[in-house]
Amino acid sequence: MTSNRSLTGDLLESFRWIADVTVMDAFESGVLDLPDFYFTGDDYRYRFEPEAKHRLLDMLRERFNSGTKYTGHALKWDTVIEQKTVELGRYLTGRTSGLDFYKPSPDLSRTDSRDLQSRILDLSQREASRLGIGRGTLHYLRKKAIGNYAFRTYGRTRRKLESLS
pTM score, two decimals? Predict the structure, then answer.
């Protein structure tokens, strides 16, 4: 029984980064904050408020359902984990001679540089319209750029903003 737990832990460790990055994003974006935790004196642990748990679980669900390129296909991370588990099983039963947990590698690049934040805050509605950035998108970008939190700018919008320089 112990070996099964150890093997499961070893498999999970390869994808631990998904949870780690999600927790960091949750704090940087303000989804989680210190008031969402409380200390229990009886067992010396910090606990989540129930609503904070739901917000973090929503972020985790979104991250596991986000896509990546693997074997020439766009797959969700939960599907990649399932395929890697199958690959591990084939390796352990001798059906395959190799095992690669380095692919696919995570894309951890950020899209919210200080330069981009200042471009967004300096952008007028007229310039945004000329670039093809809608009023709602500009509102979202400004709202996120004002705070000190991480935010995402998607490829097409990011390229439009980068064309300003």
Answer: 0.63
